[in-house]
Amino acid sequence: MSENNGIDYSFEYLMKKINESGKQYDIQKITQAYRLAHEYHSGQKRDSGEDYITHPIAVSCILLELGMDTDTICAGLLHDVVEDTDCTLEELTKQFGEGVALLVDGVTKLRKIPLATREEQTAENVRKILLAMSEDIRVMIIKLSDRLHNMRTLHYRKDEKRRATALETMNIYAPIAHRLGISWIKEELEDLSFLYLDPFAYEEIDRLMNLRKTDRIKFIDSIKSKITERLSHDFDPVPTVEGRVKSNYGIYKKVYRDGKEFDQIYDRYAVRIIVNTVNECYNVLGIIHDVFNPIPNRFKDYISTPKANMYQSLHTTVIGAEGIPFEVQIRTYEMHQTAEYGIAAHWKYKEGITSKSTRDDNRLAWVRQILELQQNADDAEEIVRTIKNDLSSEEIFVFTPKGDMITLPKGATVIDFAYAIHTQVGHRMCGAKVDKKMVSLDYRVKTGQIVEIITSSNPAHGPNRSWLQICRTNEARSKIRSWFKKERREENIFEGRSELEREFRRNYIRIPEAELEDFLSSDMRKHNCDTLDDFFAAIGYGGISVSKLIQHLKDAYNRRIQERHELTEEQIMLRAKEGLKSKSGVVVDEIGDCEIKFAQCCNPLPGDAIIGFVTRGHGISVHKADCQNYLNQKDIPEQRDRWLPVRWADKDDSENESYFKATLDIVANDRIGLLADISVALAEIRIPMHEASARELKNGNANVVVTISVAGIEQLRSVINRLSKIPSVLSVDRCGK
Ligand code: MN
Q: Do 240 and 332 meet the contact criterion of CB atoms below 8 Å apart?
């Protein structure tokens, strides 16, 4: 089997790709470079058994895809000859000129910097990499292409080699690709590294993604056509609309690192809309928000504030069909080029690298800054720091005084650093120095800094509870918690009790001390706490999270006061965020389980259209939607907000069958025994009768009004039907229509 997914990386293939690129290349020079590489590598094999030359050709194809110039393509073909064969730099200089020779030399030097293991990823080595990159950014682009092809063919290498290479790629090269803005290389490097670093998680995510593959394709296609259809009214030509699925590693980060559920990853699906001008970006955004419902706080404007790597786009998340959220990215074609190809998209190869170029100033500012600063040798340390700062937006690298690198998430404090070194260093910390200066414990460390932790010699010294709020990493947090769990029971009990009381006050929960144990008993059992003190202590050290508990305690409290008929209007409103079902058979969507009564003016029955009114102190009163009282009052300004949408519970929503009162108006030819016949008829079909009254009408007919209980509108119909059959009955009508 070919290592290259069936692509035959021959010189003919490269030539074909060059022709397809439509760009001007020095074919003669490239052919010459190929001949030399072919000659020197002849006889050498890849781990796959294929001729070695396939690798430099594959690398050059990637460089071509990035739009690189002739010299870079040549250097791609020649990138391994100096290191792996007898070919010398002098020979390269003679044949291809200094430009190509320097690029190959740069790549050769990069290869000698050991970075594969965590120990090797020291400040010094990272610094070397960055300095090499700053000499000519094309060196790094060749290196990234080389690494990409090696990662694509990594399964041919020995097992232990694979992990080391994957680790190095994940920690060093993917962040560099990100910083250079070459997003497709960054994503592919991350996904390939992830596959080797955590194959089980990779497979799991792959499985989850494939599980719904057809649905997913259908979903994305339907959004795409809906958007295209809508945009075709306002835009000519119609903007490009592409569907996109998040990379496996992108999902992994959200699931395992951010603790999100698979289904909560809103940007799992994304649609990209590419237009001509910046103005059109905002116009399209308006249309998208018009067609779909946007999710609040998910809009990001990277056009007005581009990311550090020049990335520009508008991002928003909206809800599509069937309530599935998806992300929409809107950008111009130019921004799209930058997003995909980063620095490579704006490199002016034909002109060479000139720091005097005025166009694309901003896009090249970063590179130029490196190039300029680099001439000033005194500032070398500072340059490295600046570059490293930007290397990865999510991670920072700091150093121990001995030079060990510690990787921490952005925003980490010296406390996180201390616990990352060792649990005991964290527990005994009493101060910290950053670059030899004392700092406070909430100091946020930055990439490149050297951090020294000052520890107490007293073995009883321990962390402060406030550190839980200061630290950023779960590691530090859980270590601090476990210390408190062991060491400070009294303090924990006190803290835990106050925290719970605070939360109770915030939610208007008032439980007399004597009833507290009873109220919390099920939670105490659930967390294996025998006494209230155990329970408070567990809250105190963070073993039980009050925020996770509170929702269900609020529900329990509401049930409790409801049983005691103490429901106040405020509490009904308080529950407006919940959403439970009512035993009365009415569901108030925005409100939890609460007292429901049926308005006497219209006595609604299941099946009727209904509306709820929040009464003062007596729960919700349910009216028929066509009730005259409702129609008269619904627009009174001070009451408008008290009318709420309510609906009948589905059959399986309500646990118990409920009954409703209905009043019937019966007209009959008056006769003896009429009322008795009506009672008997109702008794036969087991309908309870609460009230009955009869009177004589002016025309001699009798009018009987009975109030009965029925289970719903169906049953009421059959009652009416039954009563209509009683001899001499002329009409049976429901009152309050
Ligand atoms: Mn190579």
A: no
